[in-house]
Amino acid sequence: MATLSLYLFDSTYLTHYHHPFAIRSYLQPSSIASHSFPDIDNVGSKIKARRRSTSRFVALSTHSNPRILKSNRKSRYGQTLSPYDSEEDEHEGNEDDDSEEDWLSDDEFGELQDYDADLKKLKSQKMANTRLGISFLLAGGSSTGSFYSPDGKGKMKARKSIDERFSQLSEELGLDEKCFPLLIYLSTFGLKESHFIQMYERHMPSLQINVSSAQERLDYLLSVGVKHRDIRRILLRQPQILEYTVEKSLKSHVAFLKDLGIPEVRIGQIISAAPSLFSYSVENSLKPTARYLVEEVGIRKNDLAKVVQLSPQILVQRIDNTWNTRYNFFSKELGAPRDSIVKMVRKHPQLLHYSIEDGLLPRINFLRSIGMQDSDILKVLTRLTQVLSLSLEENLRPKYIYLINELRNEVKSLTKYPVYLSLSLDQRIRPRHRYLVSLKKVPKGPFPLSSLVPTDASFCQHWAGTSVDQYLAFRQRLLLKDFATKYGRR
User: Fold this and answer.
1) Whether the Cβ atoms of residue 42 and residue 153 lie closer than 8 Å to each other
2) Helices (DSSP H) in 105-245: which residue ranges?
3) pLDDT, tens only, 95-120
């Protein structure tokens, strides 16, 4: 019926990479009018440049400090692999080194502002319209009257326009025109021609999947909690996921995660962090890894779900090799007993990914250099294993200097309050110290590190004796002043 035409959908959502209505042009050539795809212009020149400059990469661990990850991995082309998925992901991955795990976090690093209600409603409607359009076209829906041109003259132009824009990509990669609907559908997740080249080089058959099958599989991932914005990253890291059937593969792996005790609300996050788990057999690989963590490493079964949530990659690495190597390292370097090492893994399983030479050892040596004994270092690492993830020059060293010069504390205080090393210097330590100084409420002697631990409300009630709003206003002024000093007031 002519009533199902384009004006029913919100065309403002069709950004430079969202073209869901173009899919039908290959399923039903006469149903669509001219449409432009600006991101696929000049494909030939971009492909050549991409081939010269693109680095092939793999993300083997998600962590805030990539410098301490093992960096000697090579691609099949002999290139060094980045710990990130792309340049954009690298930017996204540089989280604040001061971040704490949930089990000790009470630091407020800034509050998120709510989106405008009308904007959220509009965005939701746009997304619904886009999804509805894709489903309608893939289901065989027809729009007899033209989508873009009342007289129907624009229909063949759309086919020609899409042919021209994909032809160079098709020639470069050797793709058949039958792949074009898939490329158009995947572009709704933000994939561009450069991404298709990466997918092709990583796993060529992934671009030869039927578009309906691809949508069925990605729809399932979305249904179990994977975010729409994470689909692009997943496909770049694991394009094979388009080949995994829902019934025989995807569902069995999701069931495995649930059996481990992973809450349903966290399933999507696990998949986004470690999509390669779908390439491992549940019975022959994933379950044996889980058993090894319990029976050999010593992780309590009740803690297994927490460990996997903290580091999903632990399911897909050679756990026997990484565990034995790091167990031997901590045993010899610090004289750590097995129970202490197991506790470290339970609190911060990411340490199994860290390079010993570039990550673990330099941080231990830094703590030694400031006067800590190995027995004290072991106490700190057992209580706050996240110290092994913090940057030396941007985090640990500045906090040590502030501890000695400004707070007038000794190094041994870190043994009692290791959490100090995990707190933000700019957002927590310095503002609270300066605030109490301004109120003339700093006790004589070393500054009490216990005042840095509680929430803002508790700090204001028990230490400052002021309202939270007064403290937050002071902190804001201090941050602005420090920012102006650092970058220069113009």
Assistant:
1) no
2) 117-138, 155-173, 180-186, 193-202, 211-223, 231-237
3) 333 333 333 333 332 333 333 444 44
